Amino acid sequence: MCGIIGVTGVPDAARVAYLGLYSLQHRGQESGGMVAVDGEGVARSHRGMGL
Question: How far apart are CA 28 and CA 3, in angstroms?
């Protein structure tokens, strides 16, 4: 199984994203990743194997 969370337009987006990812950590344990859009509109991604 997998889990997806999206955060937009929230002043404390990093905290909300952290809490969302924390609550989903038991799902998709084979791999995980994150995409964030910076202030210039450039999408940056990170992914890896395991938790």
Answer: 7
Tokens of 6: 């999206």
Compute how many other C-beta atoms are within 10 angstroms of the C-beta atom of residue 9.
Answer: 5
9: left (phi over 0), alpha (psi -120 to 50) or beta: left
User: Domain tally for the chain?
Assistant: 1
Domain that holds residue 29: 13-49
The string of pLDDT tens digits covering residues 17-41 is: 889 888 887 776 777 788 888 889 9
pTM over 0.70: no
Residue 4 lies in a domain: no
In-domain check, residue 38: yes
Residues taking part in catalysis: 2
